[in-house]
Write a sequence for this structure.
């Protein structure tokens, strides 16, 4: 199963864009790239997912590299409410949704 | 609101006891996943059911068991409880399985906080 690598933590200023990177160099051609986040004291929350082309929704954008070995979650204008742990996840052949350590995003007012 | 309902929200019980956590998936979702999150720890995958059948198993203790009923709700049973079982237990649901149809989203409940004293 393909693995993902994310920085342990990142900081950003409020109202500025945030780019959260994820490396997945062993991704297979049919693996969707998923992003979830977990706000403090809450359950994980779906953010976005994509296969090849860039994806946008009301929460974020997902930029996928042409070779698909990396992707970037983009929060266009971070707010204090975006402070959370962000997880980049690939499907697992055993049907498990496995969460790694993720990136803890700190937003500075 | 994710549409996934977990009950109870909080549970305090003594060591050695048995508890049942309940999860009602979103309407139409066939897959249910259970996770354990201890204090300041990551999300540990426990078990997954799809349309009533066990589909995947993580590092779930033998003292723990789960099932998914015909109406698709699921229960996680924890027995012979130990202090170390104190954690948040999350349930998630999705329309399809995560692997068979990677183009699917999972929705999580707000969790049951279990405290074993």
């Amino acid at each position: 199963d393909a693995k993902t690598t994310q920085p342990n933590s990142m900081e950003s200023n409020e109202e500025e864009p945030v780019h959260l990177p994820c490396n997945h160099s062993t991704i297979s051609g049919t693996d969707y790239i998923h992003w979830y986040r977990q706000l403090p004291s809450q359950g994980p929350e779906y953010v976005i997912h994509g296969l090849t082309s860039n994806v946008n929704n009301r929460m974020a954008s997902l930029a996928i590299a042409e070779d698909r070995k990396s992707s970037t979650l983009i929060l266009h204008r971070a707010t204090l409410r975006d402070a959370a742990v962000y997880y980049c996840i690939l499907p697992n052949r055993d049907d498990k949704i496995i969460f790694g350590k993720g990136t803890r995003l700190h937003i500075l007012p | 609101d994710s549409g996934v309902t977990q009950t109870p929200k909080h549970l305090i019980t003594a060591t050695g006891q048995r508890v049942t956590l309940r999860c009602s998936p979103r309407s139409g979702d066939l897959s249910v996943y259970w996770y354990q999150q201890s204090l300041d720890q990551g999300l540990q995958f426990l078990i997954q059911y799809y349309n009533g059948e066990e589909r995947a198993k993580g590092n779930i203790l033998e003292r723990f068991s789960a099932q998914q009923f015909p109406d698709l709700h699921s229960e996680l049973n924890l027995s012979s409880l130990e202090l170390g079982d104190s954690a948040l237990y999350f349930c998630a649901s999705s329309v399809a399985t995560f692997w068979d149809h990677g183009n699917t989203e999972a929705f999580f409940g707000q969790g049951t906080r279990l405290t074993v004293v």
